[in-house]
Amino acid sequence: MATASGSEGRKGLFATKDTDTLVRDTEEKGASLQRVVGLLDLTALGLGAIIGTGIFVVIGEAIGDSGPAIILSFVLAGITCAFSALAFAELASSIPVSGSAYTYSYATLGEIAAWIIGWDLILEYAVSVAAVAVGWGQYFNNLADSLFGFTLPDSLAAPPGEGGSFNLPAVFIVLAITAILCIGIRESARFNTIMVFIKLAVLAFFIVVGVTAFDGGNLKPFAPEGLDGVVTAASVIFFAYIGFDAVSTSGEETKNPGRDLPIAIIGSLAIATTLYIVVSVVAVGALPFSELKGAEAPLTTVIKDGVGLDWAGNIISFGALVAITSVVLTILYGQTRIMFAMCRDGLMPRSFAKVNDKTKTPIRITATFGFLIAVVAAFVPLKEIVKLVNIGTLFAFIVVNVGVIILRRTKPDLERGYRVPFVPWFPIIGSLLCVYLMKYLSLETWLRFVGWMVLGLIIYFTYGIRHSRLRQGETVNPEAELPDAT
What is the pTM of this model? Predict the structure, then answer.
Protein backbone atom coordinates (compact mmCIF):
# COMPACT_ATOMS: atom_id res chain seq x y z
CA MET A 1 0.00 0.00 0.00
CA ALA A 2 1.37 3.44 -0.91
CA THR A 3 1.06 6.42 1.37
CA ALA A 4 1.79 10.10 0.99
CA SER A 5 5.21 10.88 -0.34
CA GLY A 6 6.43 12.76 2.68
CA SER A 7 7.87 15.53 0.54
CA GLU A 8 6.66 18.24 2.93
CA GLY A 9 5.22 20.39 0.16
CA ARG A 10 8.34 20.70 -1.98
CA LYS A 11 8.25 18.99 -5.36
CA GLY A 12 10.58 18.15 -8.19
CA LEU A 13 14.34 18.08 -7.71
CA PHE A 14 14.14 19.73 -4.30
CA ALA A 15 11.45 17.52 -2.76
CA THR A 16 12.48 16.55 0.77
CA LYS A 17 11.76 13.34 2.59
CA ASP A 18 9.97 13.73 5.89
CA THR A 19 12.00 12.61 8.93
CA ASP A 20 9.19 10.33 10.08
CA THR A 21 9.14 8.69 6.66
CA LEU A 22 12.91 8.17 6.78
CA VAL A 23 12.63 6.39 10.12
CA ARG A 24 9.58 4.37 9.04
CA ASP A 25 11.42 3.12 5.95
CA THR A 26 13.92 1.37 8.21
CA GLU A 27 11.20 -1.17 9.06
CA GLU A 28 10.72 -2.30 5.47
CA LYS A 29 10.64 -6.06 5.19
CA GLY A 30 13.82 -7.44 3.60
CA ALA A 31 15.64 -4.09 3.92
CA SER A 32 15.79 -3.68 7.70
CA LEU A 33 18.96 -3.75 9.79
CA GLN A 34 19.31 -4.90 13.42
CA ARG A 35 19.86 -2.52 16.35
CA VAL A 36 22.67 -4.39 18.11
CA VAL A 37 25.50 -1.83 18.54
CA GLY A 38 26.11 -0.36 22.01
CA LEU A 39 28.02 2.74 23.20
CA LEU A 40 31.42 1.05 23.66
CA ASP A 41 31.43 -0.56 20.23
CA LEU A 42 30.06 2.65 18.72
CA THR A 43 32.84 4.78 20.22
CA ALA A 44 35.35 2.17 19.10
CA LEU A 45 33.84 2.44 15.63
CA GLY A 46 34.69 6.14 15.62
CA LEU A 47 38.22 5.59 16.93
CA GLY A 48 38.65 2.69 14.56
CA ALA A 49 37.80 4.93 11.63
CA ILE A 50 39.84 7.95 12.72
CA ILE A 51 43.11 6.57 14.08
CA GLY A 52 44.98 4.87 11.28
CA THR A 53 46.72 5.92 8.10
CA GLY A 54 46.46 9.62 8.96
CA ILE A 55 48.80 9.43 11.94
CA PHE A 56 50.81 6.34 10.92
CA VAL A 57 51.40 7.27 7.26
CA VAL A 58 50.16 10.69 6.06
CA ILE A 59 52.28 12.65 8.56
CA GLY A 60 55.23 11.75 6.34
CA GLU A 61 53.40 13.16 3.29
CA ALA A 62 52.46 16.47 4.95
CA ILE A 63 55.45 17.40 7.11
CA GLY A 64 57.40 18.63 4.09
CA ASP A 65 54.94 21.51 3.76
CA SER A 66 54.74 22.50 7.43
CA GLY A 67 57.95 21.39 9.13
CA PRO A 68 57.62 20.97 12.92
CA ALA A 69 54.57 23.26 12.72
CA ILE A 70 52.67 20.16 11.66
CA ILE A 71 51.62 20.24 15.32
CA LEU A 72 49.56 23.34 14.50
CA SER A 73 48.29 21.66 11.33
CA PHE A 74 46.81 18.89 13.47
CA VAL A 75 45.25 21.49 15.76
CA LEU A 76 43.71 23.40 12.82
CA ALA A 77 42.32 20.24 11.22
CA GLY A 78 40.94 19.12 14.60
CA ILE A 79 39.18 22.44 15.22
CA THR A 80 37.68 22.32 11.72
CA CYS A 81 36.32 18.86 12.43
CA ALA A 82 35.03 19.79 15.89
CA PHE A 83 32.36 22.15 14.58
CA SER A 84 31.24 19.61 11.99
CA ALA A 85 31.22 16.84 14.61
CA LEU A 86 28.68 18.83 16.62
CA ALA A 87 26.47 19.08 13.54
CA PHE A 88 26.77 15.35 12.85
CA ALA A 89 25.91 14.62 16.49
CA GLU A 90 22.66 16.58 16.32
CA LEU A 91 21.48 15.16 13.01
CA ALA A 92 22.48 11.59 13.91
CA SER A 93 20.50 11.74 17.15
CA SER A 94 17.52 13.27 15.34
CA ILE A 95 17.45 10.97 12.29
CA PRO A 96 18.83 7.56 13.41
CA VAL A 97 18.93 6.08 9.91
CA SER A 98 21.67 4.64 7.68
CA GLY A 99 23.06 7.09 5.15
CA SER A 100 24.72 9.79 7.24
CA ALA A 101 24.99 13.11 5.36
CA TYR A 102 23.09 11.66 2.40
CA THR A 103 20.03 11.01 4.56
CA TYR A 104 20.33 14.35 6.35
CA SER A 105 20.43 16.12 2.99
CA TYR A 106 17.30 14.28 1.87
CA ALA A 107 15.47 15.59 4.93
CA THR A 108 16.69 19.19 4.64
CA LEU A 109 17.88 20.18 1.14
CA GLY A 110 15.95 17.87 -1.18
CA GLU A 111 16.54 14.91 -3.44
CA ILE A 112 19.01 16.45 -5.88
CA ALA A 113 21.18 17.64 -2.99
CA ALA A 114 20.89 14.21 -1.36
CA TRP A 115 22.04 12.57 -4.57
CA ILE A 116 24.99 14.94 -4.92
CA ILE A 117 26.14 14.37 -1.34
CA GLY A 118 25.54 10.62 -1.61
CA TRP A 119 27.61 10.46 -4.78
CA ASP A 120 30.26 12.54 -3.04
CA LEU A 121 30.29 10.14 -0.07
CA ILE A 122 30.79 7.20 -2.42
CA LEU A 123 33.99 8.93 -3.53
CA GLU A 124 35.03 9.86 0.01
CA TYR A 125 34.53 6.46 1.62
CA ALA A 126 35.49 4.15 -1.21
CA VAL A 127 38.66 6.00 -2.11
CA SER A 128 39.51 6.44 1.58
CA VAL A 129 39.43 2.68 2.07
CA ALA A 130 41.71 2.25 -0.93
CA ALA A 131 44.17 4.84 0.39
CA VAL A 132 44.23 3.25 3.82
CA ALA A 133 44.81 -0.17 2.30
CA VAL A 134 47.82 1.20 0.40
CA GLY A 135 49.24 2.42 3.73
CA TRP A 136 48.63 -1.04 5.21
CA GLY A 137 50.75 -2.56 2.48
CA GLN A 138 53.62 -0.18 3.26
CA TYR A 139 53.65 -1.15 6.93
CA PHE A 140 53.28 -4.83 6.07
CA ASN A 141 56.43 -4.73 3.95
CA ASN A 142 58.28 -2.78 6.62
CA LEU A 143 57.39 -5.28 9.35
CA ALA A 144 58.10 -8.33 7.19
CA ASP A 145 61.54 -6.94 6.38
CA SER A 146 62.37 -6.22 10.05
CA LEU A 147 61.15 -9.53 11.45
CA PHE A 148 61.92 -11.99 8.67
CA GLY A 149 64.24 -10.19 6.27
CA PHE A 150 61.61 -10.67 3.59
CA THR A 151 59.83 -8.09 1.47
CA LEU A 152 57.54 -8.34 -1.48
CA PRO A 153 59.00 -6.88 -4.68
CA ASP A 154 57.91 -3.33 -5.45
CA SER A 155 55.98 -4.59 -8.44
CA LEU A 156 53.62 -6.41 -6.03
CA ALA A 157 53.70 -4.09 -3.03
CA ALA A 158 53.57 -0.54 -4.37
CA PRO A 159 51.09 1.30 -6.58
CA PRO A 160 51.93 2.80 -9.98
CA GLY A 161 53.93 5.98 -9.70
CA GLU A 162 55.84 4.61 -6.72
CA GLY A 163 57.67 1.74 -8.39
CA GLY A 164 54.90 -0.84 -8.51
CA SER A 165 52.27 -2.22 -10.81
CA PHE A 166 49.95 -4.12 -8.44
CA ASN A 167 49.60 -3.64 -4.65
CA LEU A 168 48.97 -7.20 -3.47
CA PRO A 169 48.86 -6.50 0.32
CA ALA A 170 46.28 -3.75 -0.21
CA VAL A 171 44.06 -6.06 -2.22
CA PHE A 172 44.37 -8.79 0.40
CA ILE A 173 43.33 -6.60 3.36
CA VAL A 174 40.33 -5.11 1.53
CA LEU A 175 38.97 -8.50 0.51
CA ALA A 176 39.60 -9.98 3.98
CA ILE A 177 37.69 -7.17 5.68
CA THR A 178 34.91 -7.46 3.12
CA ALA A 179 34.43 -11.08 4.18
CA ILE A 180 34.27 -10.10 7.88
CA LEU A 181 31.66 -7.41 7.22
CA CYS A 182 29.50 -9.90 5.37
CA ILE A 183 29.40 -12.15 8.48
CA GLY A 184 27.51 -9.65 10.65
CA ILE A 185 27.63 -6.21 12.29
CA ARG A 186 27.83 -7.54 15.86
CA GLU A 187 30.87 -9.67 15.03
CA SER A 188 32.48 -6.87 13.01
CA ALA A 189 31.98 -4.34 15.83
CA ARG A 190 33.51 -6.63 18.46
CA PHE A 191 36.50 -7.39 16.23
CA ASN A 192 37.01 -3.65 15.68
CA THR A 193 36.80 -2.88 19.42
CA ILE A 194 39.63 -5.34 20.12
CA MET A 195 41.76 -3.72 17.42
CA VAL A 196 41.08 -0.24 18.81
CA PHE A 197 42.35 -1.19 22.28
CA ILE A 198 45.50 -2.61 20.69
CA LYS A 199 46.28 0.49 18.65
CA LEU A 200 45.63 2.85 21.57
CA ALA A 201 48.12 0.83 23.60
CA VAL A 202 50.69 1.00 20.78
CA LEU A 203 50.31 4.79 20.45
CA ALA A 204 50.77 5.15 24.21
CA PHE A 205 53.91 3.04 23.87
CA PHE A 206 55.18 5.32 21.07
CA ILE A 207 54.67 8.41 23.23
CA VAL A 208 56.45 6.92 26.25
CA VAL A 209 59.42 5.64 24.23
CA GLY A 210 59.64 8.54 21.78
CA VAL A 211 59.69 11.27 24.42
CA THR A 212 62.98 9.87 25.76
CA ALA A 213 64.69 11.15 22.59
CA PHE A 214 62.96 14.56 22.56
CA ASP A 215 65.29 17.40 21.51
CA GLY A 216 63.95 20.96 21.40
CA GLY A 217 66.48 21.77 18.68
CA ASN A 218 64.52 19.58 16.26
CA LEU A 219 61.66 22.10 16.43
CA LYS A 220 63.73 24.78 14.66
CA PRO A 221 62.88 26.23 12.20
CA PHE A 222 59.35 25.70 13.45
CA ALA A 223 57.42 26.82 10.36
CA PRO A 224 59.83 27.01 7.40
CA GLU A 225 56.99 27.67 4.92
CA GLY A 226 55.05 30.04 7.17
CA LEU A 227 51.28 30.02 7.66
CA ASP A 228 50.64 28.79 4.11
CA GLY A 229 52.70 25.70 4.84
CA VAL A 230 50.75 25.02 8.02
CA VAL A 231 47.39 25.32 6.27
CA THR A 232 48.52 23.30 3.24
CA ALA A 233 49.63 20.50 5.55
CA ALA A 234 46.33 20.74 7.44
CA SER A 235 44.42 20.30 4.18
CA VAL A 236 46.37 17.06 3.59
CA ILE A 237 46.35 15.61 7.13
CA PHE A 238 42.66 16.41 7.34
CA PHE A 239 42.55 12.87 5.99
CA ALA A 240 43.67 11.77 9.47
CA TYR A 241 40.40 12.99 10.99
CA ILE A 242 38.04 11.39 8.53
CA GLY A 243 36.05 8.73 10.29
CA PHE A 244 34.00 10.23 13.09
CA ASP A 245 31.27 10.75 10.52
CA ALA A 246 31.30 6.98 9.93
CA VAL A 247 29.67 6.64 13.35
CA SER A 248 26.58 8.36 11.99
CA THR A 249 26.20 5.71 9.28
CA SER A 250 25.40 3.18 12.03
CA GLY A 251 22.32 5.11 13.19
CA GLU A 252 20.03 2.32 12.05
CA GLU A 253 21.99 -0.35 13.95
CA THR A 254 22.49 1.49 17.26
CA LYS A 255 20.54 0.33 20.32
CA ASN A 256 20.06 3.81 21.81
CA PRO A 257 20.83 6.29 18.98
CA GLY A 258 19.49 9.42 20.68
CA ARG A 259 22.01 9.10 23.51
CA ASP A 260 24.86 7.00 22.14
CA LEU A 261 25.47 8.54 18.70
CA PRO A 262 26.34 12.07 19.94
CA ILE A 263 28.59 10.68 22.69
CA ALA A 264 30.42 8.38 20.27
CA ILE A 265 30.85 11.03 17.55
CA ILE A 266 32.13 13.82 19.81
CA GLY A 267 34.01 11.50 22.17
CA SER A 268 35.93 9.62 19.49
CA LEU A 269 37.00 12.88 17.81
CA ALA A 270 38.14 14.41 21.13
CA ILE A 271 40.22 11.34 22.04
CA ALA A 272 41.76 11.09 18.57
CA THR A 273 42.59 14.82 18.39
CA THR A 274 44.37 14.72 21.76
CA LEU A 275 46.39 11.68 20.69
CA TYR A 276 47.29 13.23 17.34
CA ILE A 277 48.65 16.41 18.90
CA VAL A 278 50.71 14.54 21.51
CA VAL A 279 52.06 12.04 18.94
CA SER A 280 53.03 14.83 16.51
CA VAL A 281 54.87 16.72 19.28
CA VAL A 282 56.84 13.61 20.20
CA ALA A 283 57.56 12.72 16.55
CA VAL A 284 59.01 16.08 15.50
CA GLY A 285 60.88 16.41 18.78
CA ALA A 286 62.57 13.02 18.48
CA LEU A 287 63.69 13.30 14.85
CA PRO A 288 64.41 16.26 12.51
CA PHE A 289 61.48 16.81 10.17
CA SER A 290 63.77 16.56 7.15
CA GLU A 291 64.29 12.87 8.02
CA LEU A 292 60.57 12.32 8.43
CA LYS A 293 59.69 13.94 5.11
CA GLY A 294 58.49 11.32 2.66
CA ALA A 295 58.87 8.43 5.13
CA GLU A 296 56.48 5.61 4.28
CA ALA A 297 56.28 4.53 7.94
CA PRO A 298 57.09 7.76 9.83
CA LEU A 299 56.37 6.63 13.40
CA THR A 300 58.50 3.52 12.94
CA THR A 301 61.22 5.76 11.50
CA VAL A 302 61.07 7.96 14.61
CA ILE A 303 61.54 5.01 16.95
CA LYS A 304 64.27 3.31 14.91
CA ASP A 305 66.28 6.36 13.79
CA GLY A 306 65.40 8.89 16.48
CA VAL A 307 65.31 6.64 19.56
CA GLY A 308 67.51 3.87 18.18
CA LEU A 309 65.35 0.91 19.17
CA ASP A 310 64.71 -1.43 16.26
CA TRP A 311 62.62 -3.84 18.33
CA ALA A 312 60.36 -0.97 19.47
CA GLY A 313 60.00 0.06 15.85
CA ASN A 314 58.63 -3.40 15.10
CA ILE A 315 55.97 -2.92 17.77
CA ILE A 316 54.95 0.37 16.15
CA SER A 317 54.73 -1.30 12.75
CA PHE A 318 52.54 -4.04 14.21
CA GLY A 319 50.32 -1.42 15.84
CA ALA A 320 50.05 0.40 12.52
CA LEU A 321 48.90 -2.78 10.81
CA VAL A 322 46.21 -3.29 13.45
CA ALA A 323 45.19 0.38 13.34
CA ILE A 324 44.92 0.51 9.59
CA THR A 325 43.00 -2.77 9.51
CA SER A 326 40.35 -1.28 11.80
CA VAL A 327 40.12 1.80 9.56
CA VAL A 328 39.50 -0.37 6.51
CA LEU A 329 36.75 -2.19 8.42
CA THR A 330 34.96 0.89 9.77
CA ILE A 331 35.16 3.04 6.64
CA LEU A 332 34.10 0.20 4.35
CA TYR A 333 31.23 -0.45 6.75
CA GLY A 334 30.16 3.18 6.47
CA GLN A 335 30.41 3.05 2.69
CA THR A 336 28.06 0.09 2.47
CA ARG A 337 25.45 1.71 4.74
CA ILE A 338 25.36 4.90 2.68
CA MET A 339 24.88 2.95 -0.52
CA PHE A 340 22.29 0.78 1.25
CA ALA A 341 20.23 3.90 2.03
CA MET A 342 20.51 5.17 -1.55
CA CYS A 343 19.40 1.82 -2.95
CA ARG A 344 16.47 1.58 -0.55
CA ASP A 345 15.33 5.01 -1.71
CA GLY A 346 15.45 3.84 -5.32
CA LEU A 347 18.20 6.23 -6.44
CA MET A 348 20.37 3.17 -7.03
CA PRO A 349 19.13 -0.35 -7.90
CA ARG A 350 16.80 -1.44 -5.08
CA SER A 351 17.83 -5.09 -5.39
CA PHE A 352 21.17 -4.15 -3.77
CA ALA A 353 19.35 -3.03 -0.61
CA LYS A 354 18.31 -6.58 0.20
CA VAL A 355 19.47 -7.69 3.66
CA ASN A 356 20.61 -11.29 4.04
CA ASP A 357 18.17 -13.21 6.25
CA LYS A 358 20.94 -15.00 8.17
CA THR A 359 23.65 -12.35 8.65
CA LYS A 360 21.34 -9.29 8.60
CA THR A 361 23.87 -7.47 6.44
CA PRO A 362 23.61 -6.09 2.86
CA ILE A 363 25.96 -8.71 1.41
CA ARG A 364 25.48 -7.69 -2.24
CA ILE A 365 26.56 -4.12 -1.60
CA THR A 366 29.42 -5.16 0.68
CA ALA A 367 30.86 -7.67 -1.77
CA THR A 368 30.51 -5.30 -4.74
CA PHE A 369 32.29 -2.42 -3.05
CA GLY A 370 34.93 -4.72 -1.60
CA PHE A 371 35.86 -5.88 -5.09
CA LEU A 372 35.80 -2.40 -6.67
CA ILE A 373 37.83 -0.83 -3.86
CA ALA A 374 40.39 -3.63 -4.06
CA VAL A 375 40.93 -2.74 -7.71
CA VAL A 376 41.48 0.94 -6.85
CA ALA A 377 43.85 0.03 -4.00
CA ALA A 378 45.88 -2.12 -6.37
CA PHE A 379 46.51 0.54 -9.00
CA VAL A 380 46.15 4.15 -7.68
CA PRO A 381 48.93 6.12 -5.85
CA LEU A 382 48.24 7.06 -2.21
CA LYS A 383 49.04 10.77 -2.44
CA GLU A 384 46.49 11.49 -5.17
CA ILE A 385 43.83 9.41 -3.41
CA VAL A 386 44.21 11.35 -0.17
CA LYS A 387 43.53 14.69 -1.86
CA LEU A 388 40.33 13.41 -3.46
CA VAL A 389 39.12 12.07 -0.13
CA ASN A 390 39.77 15.39 1.61
CA ILE A 391 37.79 17.51 -0.83
CA GLY A 392 34.88 15.09 -0.73
CA THR A 393 34.84 15.06 3.06
CA LEU A 394 35.04 18.84 3.41
CA PHE A 395 32.15 19.21 0.98
CA ALA A 396 30.08 16.73 2.99
CA PHE A 397 30.83 18.59 6.23
CA ILE A 398 29.58 21.86 4.73
CA VAL A 399 26.29 20.21 3.76
CA VAL A 400 25.80 18.74 7.25
CA ASN A 401 26.44 22.10 8.93
CA VAL A 402 23.92 23.77 6.62
CA GLY A 403 21.47 20.92 7.29
CA VAL A 404 21.45 21.67 11.02
CA ILE A 405 20.40 25.25 10.37
CA ILE A 406 17.66 24.25 7.94
CA LEU A 407 16.23 21.48 10.13
CA ARG A 408 16.09 23.83 13.12
CA ARG A 409 13.80 26.06 11.05
CA THR A 410 11.71 23.41 9.30
CA LYS A 411 11.42 20.99 12.24
CA PRO A 412 11.82 23.05 15.43
CA ASP A 413 9.90 20.50 17.52
CA LEU A 414 11.80 17.44 16.27
CA GLU A 415 13.11 15.31 19.14
CA ARG A 416 16.89 15.77 19.31
CA GLY A 417 19.17 13.69 21.52
CA TYR A 418 21.77 16.46 21.21
CA ARG A 419 21.55 20.11 20.15
CA VAL A 420 24.43 22.12 18.64
CA PRO A 421 24.99 25.26 20.76
CA PHE A 422 24.89 28.76 19.26
CA VAL A 423 23.02 27.88 16.07
CA PRO A 424 23.43 29.22 13.40
CA TRP A 425 26.87 30.57 14.36
CA PHE A 426 28.66 27.29 15.11
CA PRO A 427 27.46 25.62 11.88
CA ILE A 428 28.43 28.74 9.91
CA ILE A 429 31.92 28.70 11.46
CA GLY A 430 32.23 24.99 10.68
CA SER A 431 31.27 25.60 7.05
CA LEU A 432 33.68 28.51 6.63
CA LEU A 433 36.58 26.52 8.09
CA CYS A 434 35.90 23.75 5.57
CA VAL A 435 35.85 26.27 2.72
CA TYR A 436 39.14 27.70 4.01
CA LEU A 437 40.87 24.32 3.86
CA MET A 438 39.34 23.49 0.47
CA LYS A 439 40.96 26.61 -0.93
CA TYR A 440 44.40 25.09 -0.36
CA LEU A 441 43.74 21.94 -2.36
CA SER A 442 45.28 21.80 -5.83
CA LEU A 443 43.52 22.69 -9.07
CA GLU A 444 43.96 19.10 -10.27
CA THR A 445 42.08 17.87 -7.20
CA TRP A 446 39.24 20.31 -7.87
CA LEU A 447 39.02 19.27 -11.52
CA ARG A 448 38.85 15.57 -10.60
CA PHE A 449 36.15 16.35 -8.02
CA VAL A 450 34.08 18.34 -10.52
CA GLY A 451 34.45 15.52 -13.04
CA TRP A 452 33.15 13.02 -10.49
CA MET A 453 30.17 15.27 -9.70
CA VAL A 454 29.32 15.64 -13.41
CA LEU A 455 29.38 11.86 -13.81
CA GLY A 456 27.07 11.56 -10.81
CA LEU A 457 24.55 14.01 -12.24
CA ILE A 458 24.51 12.10 -15.52
CA ILE A 459 23.65 8.90 -13.63
CA TYR A 460 20.99 10.67 -11.58
CA PHE A 461 19.20 12.16 -14.59
CA THR A 462 19.35 8.92 -16.55
CA TYR A 463 18.51 6.49 -13.72
CA GLY A 464 17.90 7.92 -10.26
CA ILE A 465 15.28 10.49 -11.20
CA ARG A 466 13.16 7.81 -12.90
CA HIS A 467 13.38 5.24 -10.08
CA SER A 468 13.18 7.50 -7.02
CA ARG A 469 10.54 6.15 -4.65
CA LEU A 470 9.86 9.67 -3.37
CA ARG A 471 9.19 11.04 -6.85
CA GLN A 472 6.92 8.09 -7.56
CA GLY A 473 4.86 8.92 -4.47
CA GLU A 474 5.81 5.62 -2.85
CA THR A 475 6.67 5.12 0.82
CA VAL A 476 6.56 2.06 2.99
CA ASN A 477 3.72 1.28 5.33
CA PRO A 478 5.25 -1.25 7.74
CA GLU A 479 1.84 -2.56 8.82
CA ALA A 480 1.12 -3.58 5.24
CA GLU A 481 4.16 -5.86 5.35
CA LEU A 482 2.97 -7.80 8.40
CA PRO A 483 1.14 -11.09 8.00
CA ASP A 484 -2.60 -11.10 8.56
CA ALA A 485 -3.20 -11.74 12.25
CA THR A 486 -6.39 -13.62 11.46
Answer: 0.85
